[in-house]
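Continued from yesterday's entry.
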Amino acid sequence: MKPAHWSPAAIRDLDQTASWYGDQGGEALEIGFIDAVESVVKLIQIHPGAGSALHAGLLPSLPAPLRFHPVRRFDGYLVYYVELPAHVSIVRIWNASRGMEALFEDEELNPDIGSSHPGY
């Protein structure tokens, strides 16, 4: 199992989305979203090749293909990540309805940078 390193953007995405779910449906929904994302990250840590590489061509400069895996029970949310030799870099937690163009807008993507856990 590879450790997961979270980019600042992924941590921000998780914080903002969980907060939005909390505002819309209460604390149980907020925690449910966090738990669902953490379940996907655990799956990715165990099976890094499980995610789709459909969007790998978006950032060909990365050291490995950009992959994503859907978040169960939260339609449209995807965990974007890159498998590196020593760890898995969680790059973004993204709602696909926002469009691919905005996915890495104003972000300098460095999959080596990140913390080992978002703090939940």
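--- second protein ---
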Amino acid sequence: MNQKEFRLSVLALIILLLAGNAWLAITDPVESNYALTAREMLEAGDFISPRIYGNYWYDKPIFFYWELILAFKLFGVNEFAARFFPAVFAFLNVGLVYWFAKKLYSAKTAICSALVFATTTGFFYLSRAVITDMAFVFFFNAVLVTFYLAYRSGNRRLYLGSFFFAGLATLTKGPIGILMPGLILLIFLCIRKRPGELLRMMWLPGLAIFCAVGGYWYYQMYQLHGQDFILNFFGVHNFLRATVAEHSRDDVWYYYTLIFLLGFCPWSFIMLYQIKKRWHELREKVRARSVSESTVFLLLWAFMVNFLFQMMATKYLTYTQPSFLPLAILAGVLLSERLTMVKKVAAGAWVLYMILTFAGAVPLCDHRSGRLTSEALKEVNPSQRPVSNYGDYPTSLVFYSHDKVTQLAPREIIETTRPGGMSWDAKNVMPFLAFEDLPTDEPIIVTVQNSRADQLKHALPQAELRTLRTLDTYSIVEMIIPDEAAKQKGSNDK
């Protein structure tokens, strides 16, 4: 690849990462939590304690919220700003893949690896998703990259980079940012029969760097919120997430196998074909123990990320993204002699992703967002009557409307699902309104998913409902609960 092609590839990557981001609505149920939390922190001038719906919120550490707050300050509170830093870290991840592959193998392998990494379906999704993962993937990868370069070169100072990036990974996602890469490098040193290398890792200055970068926020949060922070952050959102499935339907043994096949597409299938085609050659290399140490490290890295996350109860499609860097470099090694084919597939994927952004992602995000509902509410509710919701809670509606939206439910349900203790009820921090506390003879506005409209009628059979607007996903209705006592009195007077 000559200089002109290289520059065009970089430009194409930037276009891919930024195209359409201003039109991609903030979606429920995940993106909206991050966007609303960052907006509320910015409005409160509090850059330490995450908060949502006016309540402190301990779901994730602070780094991604800082990203969003900075972007909101630079570009305003909008979709482009929310998706800006995921795109920045996506670009950095591609650069890291290229740089590390070039260090380990060759420039041709580095180009193949970067093209593979940048055109997987998982990267396409994650590079514009308003979630913590793209920054976390970069820091996680950087921990292991700096470790291996220090190990291979004998330059002990590079180990300090591992501690630095582990601090940032911990500040982005939690303890997993140091525990998982730490376990991977420990197993690698044992496999290579060099556990003594641990003694060369400059632990005192390294731990000082780690604590300064990743520990200060945790100390501040404990000082401000005490046991509430410990219980919810470490208890619910870390220990419980690892031991109790948040979505039990996904807790199956083949989950991350499917994620690899679909998320690393189209290269997952190309890799499998190449492995099958070169099976005898690869098997002989293994038998002859001529597999390079770098390849062993990458294989272990990719395997351990998938294995460890598979062992955890809660599973998400983005969790194993840290395995994509070693997989991309391994793919680059397999495909380095077929660079022309790699370029053609990458170019085709780029065109497909550009089409999907505008023809698929834009309408899909609108379908999963409260943005259009918020715009409709301004038209049908000019007097700004109280707004409630029935069904899945639309946090994005709160983000776009800047209004309080109460969640309707029977009092018994509200009481039994309040946050407290080690359970997923800790996520129920939105404002609730019990059916029993609904005002009588006073119209309120209710948003309801179209699929749940009949359930609302069944739950409140006495309510008088008038549809004000029907949208793709939600309907906006005016609801009045008749005063039965007044009706009875009027009947008696007659």
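The radius of gyration is 26 Å. Residues 485-494 have pLDDT under 50 and may be disordered. Will compare against the first tomorrow.
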